[in-house]
Design brief:
By secondary structure, the protein is an alpha+beta fold. It folds into three domains: 99 residues, no CATH class; 86 residues, no CATH class; 36 residues, no CATH class. Helices cover 13% and strands 16% of the residues. Strand 6 and strand 7 form a beta hairpin. 23% of the residues are buried.
């Protein structure tokens, strides 16, 4: 249980077969951590219950070649076994290795403190650690940001922006470039529209297209 691992001495993980008590719990090379997994045995879940009926609740267990655990205190996902990540949970003190919810999730959903985003490394949708980026990190819901995927990379939220995106909208192209639900709101856009209106002489009204275009060209030359 979480209460058993809140002592500062237990933040280190046990290193098997080194003859030392790495996690300072009074046991050298803990058998719960270092014993090989039994094929086809019931799986222990990190949920505060004794799922595999061995008398231990949420014990350390190792099931890969690296000897890294799941359901254990951690400071980095590198300390966790494959398919487990170091993250926080409401019922546990600090950060722990938890099995992640895997690929195939729906964009925008959350699972165990993680958010479903596009993994830019594997190019698949999966639940990724957002501890360093803050919960609910988003690339925006409106304008050219709608549908944009992102990922937490080295504690920085990175978005796959479209070519039309602008941090400050100055393009005046009829799109919501900065994703604030406003289109062409920059003063430059209003000034541009005013200049275009000035370039259309009243005499051009109803004139043939060629004559109207010539009047616009002459108007531009007079303003230079």
């Amino acid at each position: 249980q979480a209460a058993l691992y809140t002592d500062l001495c237990t933040w280190a993980l046990e290193t098997c077969a080194n003859g030392r008590d790495d996690d300072c719990n009074g046991v050298i090379d803990d058998p719960e951590q270092c014993a090989l997994c039994v094929p086809n045995a019931p799986s222990e879940l990190c949920d505060g219950a004794d799922n595999n009926c061995d008398g231990l609740i949420d014990e350390y267990f190792v099931c890969d070649d690296t000897g890294r655990p799941s359901c254990a205190p951690c400071t980095s996902s590198l300390q966790c076994r494959i398919n487990a990540r170091c993250r926080s949970a409401p019922d546990f003190a600090g950060t722990w290795c938890f099995d992640e919810c895997g690929a195939g999730c729906a964009p925008g959903t959350t699972c165990d403190g993680e958010v479903c985003v596009l993994n830019v490394t594997s190019d698949v949708l999966s639940c990724l650690d957002v501890l360093g980026c803050g919960a609910g990190a988003s690339c925006g819901l409106y304008g050219v940001c709608a549908g944009t995927q992102g990922a937490c990379i080295n504690d920085v939220w990175v978005c796959a922006r479209s070519p039309e995106w602008q941090a400050e909208e100055t393009r005046c192209d009829g799109l919501d470039n900065d994703c604030d639900q406003l289109v062409d709101e920059h003063p430059l856009c209003a000034a541009r529209e005013a200049r275009l209106a000035e370039m259309k002489p009243e005499a051009c009204a109803g004139a043939p297209a060629g004559v109207a275009w010539l009047a616009v060209l002459l108007s531009r030359r007079r303003r230079r």
